[in-house]
Amino acid sequence: MGPVPNKTDKNLTYVSLKGVGHKYDPHPNSPMVVQDIDLDIHRHEFVAVVGPSGCGKSTLLRMVAGLLVPSHGSVSVFNLPVTEPRDDVGIVFQKANLLPWLTVRKNVLFPLKHKYGRYSSADEVRANELLEMAGLMQFADKMPDELSGGMQQRVGIVRALLLNPDILLMDEPFSALDALTREQIGFDLLDIWREHPKTVLFITHSISEAVLLSDRILVMSKRPGTVMDLIEVDLARPRTSKTINSPRFAELTDIIRGYIYEPNVPV
Ligand SMILES: Nc1ncnc2c1ncn2[C@@H]1O[C@H](COP(=O)(O)OP(=O)(O)OP(=O)(O)O)[C@@H](O)[C@H]1O
Fold it and tell me: Is the CB of 53 under 6 A from ligand 1?
């Protein structure tokens, strides 16, 4: 078993947002979507973002990804301003968007082929290792439509991991899945993360998913999304189904629910 990556190195800031704000409409009177966001994410840290629908979670992620330029403040990755998507930052979206005419293995290898025109036998070995770890090896030669939604989403995660990004941005990656599959794939993600430590920014609608997975949780207010709190998740790792039944898990989810559903009541 690899290193346990909850020992984040607070001296190494991989992602930094300073006074970040954004509005899509540049008109001076148009409302801000997100505002005054300050956040440092450290090496191998798993940070989740929760908040009401429309508060700007995806907007935040897109700015870190280099897909959107903030109208205020600065976003940097490895101390460099983000100006465009970077190879060392992987993204997993809500839908895996697999290519239906390629097998699972070829889908996973596709970004390498697309980028470099080819992939090596070492890449194939690594693809197989990751597929094995994600419980997908027996489906490697199947076509995507032969897989369940949960499996397809796992393929999307493996595809992102094959590029070996230092930072993984995940935008509601499990939201299309049923509750049981979602919980299982969350545990699978934690296993993969333990074996291949990454710095993760994870957007979710699910408070319990955020608590189960992350080291810290950024709780956003309703639009314009600001930081309501940054909560330290002091639950031991590895997290298991016992974690979900622990009193502290319930306390943390209650604190966050309080922020989101009764934002004016002090918790
Ligand atoms: N490309 C765009 N152009 C204009 N407005 C946009 C654009 N993308 C998002 N918005 C608006 O910005 C606000 C924040 O959207 P965003 O998707 O970031 O929120 P979210 O918190 O991720 O929402 P949800 O939880 O529902 O997925 C919303 O009001 C949305 O309508």
Answer: yes
Residue with tokens 């299309």: 176
**From the alpha carbon of 172, which atom of ligand 1 is closest?**
27
Distance between CA atoms of residues 182 and 18, nearest Å: 32
Domain 9-86+169-185+198-262: CATH architecture, name and number where available: 3-Layer(aba) Sandwich (3.40)
Does residue 5 sit in helix, strand or coil? coil
What is the residue extent of each domain of the chain?
Answer: 9-86+169-185+198-262, 89-164
Is the per-residue pLDDT at 225 higher than 90?
A: yes
How far does the centroid of ligand 1 lie from the alpha carbon of residue 59, in Å?
6
Q: Which atom of ligand 1 is nearest to the CA of 61?
A: 18
Mutate to test the pocket of ligand 1, among 23, 32, 49, 59 (most ligand atoms within 8 A of CB): 59
- For the entire predicted model, the pTM comes to 0.91
Q: What is the ipTM of this complex?
A: 0.98
The token pair at 253 is: 């989810």
H or E segment at 241?
Answer: helix 241-244
* Tokens linked to 42: 């450290």
- For ligand 1, mutation pick of 22, 58, 219, 223 (most atoms within 8 Å of CB): 58
Whether ligand 1 lies within 6 angstroms of the CB of 208 is answered as: no
Atom of ligand 1 nearest to the CA of 60: 18
Instruction: For residue range 35-51, list pLDDT tens digits in order.
Output: 999 999 999 999 999 99
Q: What is the pLDDT of residue 176?
A: 79
Half-sphere exposure of residue 160, counting CA atoms within 13 Å on the CB side?
27
CB 235 within 8 A of CB 223: no
